[in-house]
Write a structure and sequence with these properties.
Strand order of the largest sheet: 3-2-1-4-7-5-8-10
Structural class: alpha/beta
Order of helices and strands: HEHEHEHEHEHEEHHEHHEEHHHHHH
Helix content: 40-55%
Distance between the termini: 46 Å
CATH class of the largest domain: Alpha Beta
Number of domains: 2
Strand content: 5-15%
CATH architecture of the largest domain: Alpha-Beta Complex
CATH topology of the largest domain: Spore Coat Polysaccharide Biosynthesis Protein SpsA, Chain A
Number of helices: 16
CATH superfamily of the largest domain: Spore Coat Polysaccharide Biosynthesis Protein SpsA, Chain A
Largest sheet: 8 strands, mixed
Radius of gyration: 22 Å
Length: 419
């Protein structure tokens, strides 16, 4: 049996288990409050839907100090093989902890992929450790399309509050869809299913000492699967209820992390996305139903102030990236009152393409470039929130669809300026 360089006690567990049909991974960091529920849901799902399959639960922990691993240990897992991995946040040496890597979710995922490879697992899933809405059915919906349907990658489909997931809705989904031609609605959802062969493919990629390992893993997994021709689907999981964040608070770090990874993948796969025009639906598993969603409270006044401060402080950078014409449009937005503020979708799609081009041509250091986008993103988000305030969930989704079409229609602009 081939294994990566695991610590001795993990090696012994792998030797004892030998082989597994299904592996479910839970990356964690200080999630003692929520992870017990996640583990119980996984166990129930495996027992109910895959009673005849040999299953392993892997908790890949990033050095929790709140007793997360004790909760996992003490949540009844007697009927299952369970591998609990504790990463030191600062590896003492490369020899003692060769798999720990740089701190971040991607390093935790890499370990899960390596164990899937070592156990020759046929189907795998990973789920977030802060989920409050996970049910046993999630395990069936993430694993069965791989095990019985021949799919390699299962992205999640959730109902989320119309003001939750704004980076996905305004940037990552429209951009990924326009680039690669597949309508994967939640490309950075955090909960995925994948085949053992795709896990092995991921391990061949030389990204584990880069920012992907720190924070870009979700979009990297989705894009790598689509761009390399793996069979992709999605499953409807109901509501995504976790520790939500106010989209008006400081999101510059998250924006930097997600967008820099997405832009870097554009460089990697330019030959793939360049000729694609339009998009096609991706098949979906699961029964779609209405769910109650937790409200997301937003302070749009504060957000618009952030946008106007950006206009004051970052104008020179913006005019350099966007050009004089679009910068004049941004200046015009700065003069609008709060009640009249409206960020046009055509301007927004061009702006994202201009930032992607600036990233590609290394116009500024990456962090400076993408953090300069934060006030623009906050302004666009405030505009959407005010526009969608009285809309139902479906109407709000229709507005996101309009934005996606705008990205697809404007792709020729991106392709013609890409050198």
């Amino acid at each position: 049996m081939k294994t990566a360089a695991f610590r001795t006690e993990v090696h012994e567990q792998l030797e004892r288990i030998g082989q597994a049909d299904i592996l479910v991974g839970i990356p964690s960091f200080n999630n003692a409050r929520t992870i017990g529920h996640v583990v119980r849901a996984i166990q129930a799902g495996l027992a109910k839907y895959f009673p005849d399959h040999k299953a392993v639960i892997v908790n890949s922990d990033g050095g929790s100090s709140d007793g997360t691993m004790d909760v996992v240990r003490n949540t009844s897992i007697d009927d299952f093989n369970a591998i609990l991995l504790h990463h030191r946040m600062a590896p003492v040496s490369k020899i003692a902890f060769p798999y720990a890597g740089i701190p971040g979710k991607g390093s935790a995922f890499r370990t899960i992929f390596e164990i899937a490879d070592a156990l020759d697992a046929k189907a795998c899933a990973v789920v977030d450790s802060d989920l409050r809405s996970i049910t046993p059915e999630w395990i069936e919906l993430l694993v069965k399309p791989v095990l019985a349907g021949g799919h390699d990658y299962v992205a999640p489909l959730y109902h989320r509050h119309k003001f939750d997931g704004t980076i996905t809705n305004s940037i990552v989904y429209p951009l990924t869809r326009a680039l690669y031609g597949k309508r994967v609605r939640q490309p950075i959802g955090g909960d995925f299913g994948f085949s053992g062969s795709l896990a092995r493919f991921y391990l061949t990629k030389d990204v584990w000492e880069t920012d992907v390992a720190r924070f870009g893993i979700d979009i990297w997994m989705t894009t790598t699967a689509i761009a390399n021709g793996f069979k992709v689907t999605q499953s409807f999981l109901g509501a995504k209820i976790h520790d939500a964040k106010d989209p008006g608070t400081d999101l510059s770090n998250m924006l930097y992390q997600v967008v820099s990874a997405t832009f870097a993948l554009m460089d990697t796969y330019a030959d793939i996305w360049m000729p694609i025009r339009g998009s096609e639906a991706v098949p979906a598993f699961g029964f779609e139903y209405s769910v109650g969603l937790e409200p997301v409270n937003v302070n749009t006044t504060r957000m618009l102030n952030t946008f106007r401060e950006g206009l004051h402080n970052l104008g020179e950078i913006w005019v350099d990236i966007l050009g004089a014409g679009d910068f004049r449009e941004i200046e015009r937005l700065g003069t609008q009152g709060d009640d009249d503020f409206h960020f046009p979708v055509s301007l927004w799609s061009r702006l994202i393409y201009d930032y992607a081009l600036a990233f590609h041509s290394k116009k500024l250091p990456t962090e400076q470039l993408i953090k300069s986008m934060t006030p623009l993103y906050v302004g666009k988000t405030a505009s959407f929130i005010m526009q969608a305030a009285d809309m139902g969930q479906q109407e709000a989704e229709a507005e996101i669809e309009k934005l996606c079409i705008e990205f697809e229609n404007g792709k020729e602009y991106l392709a013609s300026h890409w050198k």
